């Protein structure tokens, strides 16, 4: 189980167990869970020896969701960083400031810390 979580990444966040998952595959169980995952909403499901084992998250746990390409963090519940709007508008046009802000936002998106609109 430790080996499966060592990468701090999950295959996907979903409510239904996949039809076929290799041993070591990890998923974040969303609501409403079904099948073998009923009652395990919020947990991390790990495939071990053909069965599912569950780990409940602790405060501050951060995992990378490979399907959406960004991080999810547990803070009383799972949270995904919202997608911020790019700088635009205003009464004074400051091209350099907007370019710098947009570069920071893009870097955070590329790191998987922010979503895309």
Quickly describe the structure:
With 117 residues, the protein is of the alpha/beta class. It has helices at 2-6, 95-110; strands spanning 9-10, 12-14, 26-29, 44-48, 51-55, 62-65, 70-74, 78-80. The protein folds into two domains: 2-80, no CATH class; 81-117, no CATH class.
Kindly describe this structure.
The chain is of the alpha/beta class and 117 residues long. The chain contains two helices and eight strands. A hairpin with a 2-residue loop joins strand 4 (44-48) and strand 5 (51-55). It is elongated, with a radius of gyration of 18 Å.
Strand content: 25-35%
Please indicate the count of domains: 2
Largest sheet: 4 strands, mixed
Query: How much is the average pLDDT?
Result: 85
* H/E element sequence: HEEEEEEEEH
Order of strands across the biggest sheet? 1-6-7-8
Query: Which residue ranges are poorly predicted, with pLDDT under 50 across at least 5 consecutive positions?
Result: none
The span between the termini is: 35 Å
Q: Tell me the overall shape.
A: elongated
Q: Mind telling me the C-alpha Rg?
A: 18 Å
Subunit arrangement of the protein: single chain
Total count of helical runs of at least 4 residues: 2
Residues in helices, as a percent range: 10-25%
Structural class: alpha/beta
Number of β-strand runs = 8
């Amino acid at each position: 189980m430790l080996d499966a979580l060592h990468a701090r990444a999950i295959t996907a966040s979903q409510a239904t167990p996949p039809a076929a998952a290799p041993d070591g595959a990890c998923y974040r169980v969303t609501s409403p869970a079904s099948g073998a995952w009923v009652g395990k909403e919020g947990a991390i499901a790990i495939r071990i020896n053909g069965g599912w084992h569950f780990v409940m998250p602790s405060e501050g746990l951060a995992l990378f969701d490979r399907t959406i390409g960004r991080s999810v963090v547990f803070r009383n519940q799972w949270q995904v960083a919202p997608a911020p709007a790019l700088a635009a508008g205003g009464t004074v046009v400051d091209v350099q400031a907007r370019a710098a802000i947009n570069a920071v936002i893009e870097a955070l998106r590329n790191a998987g810390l922010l979503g895309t609109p």
